[in-house]
Design a protein that fits this description.
Strand order of the largest sheet: 9-5-6-15-14
Largest sheet: 5 strands, antiparallel
Distance between the termini: 21 Å
Number of strands: 18
Order of helices and strands: HEEEEEEEEEEEEEEEEEEH
Number of domains: 2
Helix content: 25-40%
Shape: elongated
């Protein structure tokens, strides 16, 4: 296969990755705290001696859309939403992770955990604990958690030290290879959850555009294959 074919194949591979990302976004339209992703295309150009320049496209990097999503009222005592910048910090078996999904429940020990059982951490990086016998639990906009009028913890807002290192791990969980630090100008709201920031119409339109681009590339490859076969058959006579 000549360089044109290889160039088209790299483009097709990138379009397939982008289609997977778009499909994943659409599947999480109703997932609280989900952040849409995009694919970053880059171009590598080289020039071989005595040959024309060769361009290869890759799509190995993803970017996370951190724009604010809408808020839904749930009335749940342990449903927390962030309005503005910042993340909740949770403890997982693989280390500390970031999330915007604020649906928590108290464990038997009184620790607030995610649906997957990961503990919510406070502003100092310690587990958030609510007394098991607490009847009235409230959350201030600054993250101060109180039980029966007594402050028991302060949930902190966290940010990746380097935003470019923020990586989507799974579901609504993110990691930052450059580390995390306290930060964010957001406020916390009790009895609410943040929606997904995926725009259905935009994602469907994007899926159609990617599909058409892939079909055009496939048509070119089919024609190129037919041309090469025709040349081989002609020269073989």
């Amino acid at each position: 296969m000549d360089s044109i074919g290889y160039t088209t194949l790299t483009r097709q591979s990138g379009l397939m990755r982008e289609m997977e990302v778009v499909a994943h976004n659409i599947a999480n339209i109703s997932t609280s705290g989900f952040r849409r992703e995009g694919v970053v295309f880059s171009e590598y150009v080289t020039r071989l001696e005595g040959e024309p320049s060769l361009s290869m496209a890759t799509a190995s990097a993803r970017n996370v859309d951190l724009s604010q999503a809408g808020l839904s009222t749930t009335g749940g005592t342990y449903d927390f939403a962030i309005q503005g910048d910042g993340f909740f910090l949770i403890e997982t078996p693989d280390g500390e992770r970031l999330t915007r999904a604020g649906a928590f429940t108290p464990s038997d020990a009184g620790e607030l955990v995610t649906p997957d059982g990961y503990r919510l951490l406070d502003a100092g990086g310690a587990p958030v604990v609510v007394p098991p016998d607490a009847r009235n639990v409230g959350l201030g906009q600054d993250g101060t958690l109180s039980a029966d009028g007594v402050a028991v913890a302060r949930i902190g807002l966290w940010q990746p030290t380097d935003p470019l290192t923020l990586t989507h791990v799974a579901g609504t969980i993110f990691t930052a290879s450059g580390g995390v630090e306290p930060g964010g100008d957001g406020v916390m709201l009790q009895g609410m959850l943040e929606d997904s920031n995926v725009e259905p119409v935009t994602e469907v339109a994007r899926m159609i555009a990617v599909q058409r681009a892939y079909e055009m590339g496939q048509t070119f490859l089919d024609r190129e294959d037919a041309r090469i076969r025709s040349v081989i058959q002609t020269l073989g006579r």
